Model the fold of this input.
Amino acid sequence: MAQLQRIVIAPDQIGNGKINLTSPQKHYLSTVLRLQNNGSFIAMDGMGQWWLAKLNEGTAKIVKSLQVETELPVPVTLIAALPKGNGFDEVIRCCTELGVTCITLVLSTRTLLKPSLQKLARWHRIAKEAAEQSKRAFIPTIIGPVNFESAILKNTAKYSFICECHDYYPHLKQIVSSSYVTSEIVIAIGPEGGWTETEIQLAITNGFQPVSLGKRILRAVTAPILALSVVTSELEATVRHSIHQGTL
Done:
């Protein structure tokens, strides 16, 4: 099953046990992948549902639903100030592979970059492709761009962290590993030059814990990928330990 090609479909493409493939999907399956009639592939709606399907004369027949267990045990939201250039393509791709649930794009004091509609569409496409490639059950939601203050004030997550370059703050790994995380995690990553002191204080006032990602200064593209790697590793290690101990 792991070697079958995965494609994302819209929920309204399904009806009467069939998938009404779009022209690009037909071309991709038949011409690019050279899938023959009755050839199998996996369809996913990006919202948690997977199906084993077989190509059938330009449509697809649903064979059965599939159970997928590739998501993190709790949702993880990334609040990210937009870096300059095209570096955010890699942030979207890697963080999707690592399991991020939602990415909120923010405009902070030190970054006023407002992406075009074309760039936003590109990021949605990258997230979709990365979810297909990494066997995700869900495609991450991409929100924004929104004002930093608005994103902070609307946050209600119990486990909320704002990353800063100062290593006198506790490391994110230390905090996550010492907590029994049972609900959504939110991680805020700043732009080139970091957050302003005013932004950090606003976040702290609204329940965010300041944390470090180590002694080195990381690029605005590297930091979110490292943060998601730390959280993913700690969450999945906790689940494995709980299963081994018989508490899950």
